[in-house]
Specification:
single chain, Tyrosyl-Transfer RNA Synthetase, two-stranded parallel sheet, Rossmann fold, 14 helices, three-stranded parallel β-sheet, mainly alpha, 330 residues, 53% helix
Length: 330
Amino acid sequence: MSKKIVLSGSRPTGNIHLGNYFGALENWVRLQEDYDCHFFIADWHALTTGYSDTAMLRKNTISLMADFLASGLDPSQSTLFLQSQITVHAELYLLLGMNTPLSWLERCPTYKDMMANISEKDIATHGFLGYPVLQAADILIYKADYVPVGEDQIPHLEITREIARRFNFLYEKEVFPEPQPLLTKSKVLPGTDGRKMSKSYNNTIALGDDPDEVRKKVMSMITDPARIRKDDPGHPEVCTVFAFHKVFSESEIDRIEQECRKGCIGCVACKKILQEKMEKFHTPIFEKRQKLLENENELLDILRDGSVKAREKAERTIEEAREAVRIGFK
């Protein structure tokens, strides 16, 4: 039996940080064993909010590819490709956009949230409004069976399912299967300041941060604000450092929690334990990443090879879509 197809992507808007890694990338690496995985760098999607400044796009794309490989994605197991190299994504985006109701796009939770909260960029554009249609094209062009998502992302996938359903109905042909969510239980890490880890908050720890920078960021993390002295009882449930320990010190988490609550361990000592744990995880990835970046051409060759494989599949699907719409002539 052929393996089921899994598809996901990441925008080249900066280095992968630990929130991205534990929220998605770690799971992608596991999925390679059991699925026909397609993971892509979504450079067109990067333009939806970053269209006015593309100076770093190439560098970010190469950097993201290094993050992928250093984290364990394997081009011999997965198809790794660059979105813009598969131009039929754009053709399917156009065909799907022709029959996607405007109301579906306007009700998208991310669209409403970002329009309300992003003031430093002009995102009142056709491209930003229509990004769910491009996302649908990315998924449907490979007839993906599954898209790895967390529960909070299911509404985003549902619009792709609706778009596929509407296309099949309008043109009376089952061109696209409806992709299913592949629910993933991800480890959640806050930013170093306790808020959501995000580049826009400048509170991330990236795979590309050197070990000294990681050490500084760990030692500056926000802890329990009510704890003044070392022997004061702590409240680990509100401590950023403890949230990191849940991921990096799983075998010792009960001991760390008890010592914190009893005031038996100070915040500085607790941070030093975390820093040592994180160093063992982070440094090998960082070093592998640095080695990969020494030869950008090899990274680009892997992307090109993956894009050739992806293009072959995508062109078969777009031909079916054209026939269903009855557009073009042979």
